[in-house]
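Dear Dr. H.,

I hope your travels went smoothly. While you were away I took the liberty of generating a structure for the chain from your last submission, since the lab meeting agenda had it listed for discussion. I wanted you to have the full record in hand beforehand rather than looking at slides cold. The sequence, exactly as received, is reproduced here:
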Amino acid sequence: MSYAGYVPLLCEYAARMHQQNGRPLRILEIGILQGTTTFSLATNLLHLRIPFVLEAIDIFVRAEVRQQRNQTIGLPSAVRLIEGNSLKVLQQLCDHNARIKAQPADNQPSNFSLEKSEARETAVLYDIVLVDGDHNFETVSRECELLQSLTHPQTIFLFDDVDSTKHGTTDIYYSTMSGYENNKYATPKPSEEGTVQGVAAAVNNFQRQKGYVSWKIWTGAPRLVADPNNALFLTWAAEVLGEEWPRTQTLLNTHSFQDLPLCLDMTRTPEASKLPPVFRKLYRDKTANEKEKE
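The corresponding predicted structure, in token form, is as follows:
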């Protein structure tokens, strides 16, 4: 998946969550492709010294992606590349959590940590989830269903291609695409097309069922989804969006940064002093580059 424009926001949220909880973050990415988002997010978290584990799933992990992970200092131990079908991997993780939950209360670990995970089993709960795998209603719906057992109230979700005119309302299976015909992990396309298709319907259903709200950074496909009762998220969003951020929203009410004073592309940037910390350096760097061109 590739929506690098969200990386500063994700890093800011990660920093706040780590500061509040004092534990390493656990991140899930479904759909890696060239690893654009994987490495952008991971290297920024390393620079910010935020401890994390990023588990990335794809039906085909390219050799160049493995090579870049292995040759980047700090990433081999932090980024786990998993080649497999997302639904099967998520189901295995759900089964793992069910076993942990069935243990006597005295044996259940309180928090995930890298040290504890080596000593005894812990439940798998992700703080940030990025979804950009198979682009069809059935797969994304099932992913959302399984993720409910692998996340917590402070988890934020980022779904790609939700509002895409190509993938949003039409089912696409990687098993039918060139280069994936013989991939053993690709989900076969059903013989009959479903009456409901596309990523958008699956994500909309997920939001309705959970009562989640969402918005976009720019007019386009990716959609950021979160629990409106997540106090950490609300504080973060209010600071990023300023007074324009609505404290209450109707379900599926999606907001675009292009309609607000703050845009990631800085085309309508307010004074730098009013920007949240994560954007100030971006603004200074952009201003400096423009002055050099003059």
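Two observations you may find useful: The longest strand covers residues 151-159. The chain has two domains: 4-257, 261-294.

With kind regards,
E. W.
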